[in-house]
């Protein structure tokens, strides 16, 4: 599951659900309860692609079928009316996780390593068993309990102008 926006990532992790645009209904309708998703944050997710790396940061499991929501969630002026709950229990601490670019040549999902990032311009990138096992194995030692790693993702998921409007801590 590809996430390219910090606010969307904070929403996914805090609400333990994901949402997709209506235009991707055909692709996401194939998701079934129990399907495993590896959560990938793009280089631009935290709005600094020269500093940040695209990383696999969590594992999630689809907890219920995709449903169309009456009130779509909105990020960056786009609507995401297709939702499903996720089971997420572990997350790599912020700045950790599996840097996908370092493993592209070993992954079947990217047959042309020179243009691999083009395949990440959709919300779901199918992985075969080899790719899933490789990435999950590399991710495993990076993971921490969700409640330990989540606060930093939530802090970074809030736009700067909203952070400055918060009341100071007592």
TrEMBL record:
Lineage: superkingdom: Bacteria
Protein name: EVE domain-containing protein
């Amino acid at each position: 599951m590809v996430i390219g926006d910090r606010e969307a990532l904070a929403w996914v992790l805090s609400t333990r659900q994901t949402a997709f645009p209506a235009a991707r209904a055909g692709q996401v309708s194939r998701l079934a309860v129990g399907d495993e998703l590896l959560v990938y944050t793009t280089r631009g997710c935290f709005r600094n692609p020269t500093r940040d790396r695209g990383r696999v940061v969590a594992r999630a499991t689809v907890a219920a079928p995709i449903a169309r929501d009456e009130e779509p969630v909105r990020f960056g002026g786009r609507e995401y009316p297709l939702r499903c709950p996720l089971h997420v229990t572990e997350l790599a601490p912020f700045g950790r996780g599996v840097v996908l670019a370092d493993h592209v040549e070993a992954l079947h999902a990217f047959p042309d390593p020179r243009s691999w990032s083009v395949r990440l311009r959709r919300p779901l990138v199918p992985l075969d068993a080899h790719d899933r096992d490789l990435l999950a194995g590399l991710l495993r030692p990076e993971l921490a309990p969700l409640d330990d790693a989540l606060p930093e993702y939530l802090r970074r998921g809030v736009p700067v102008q909203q952070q400055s409007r918060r009341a100071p801590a007592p």
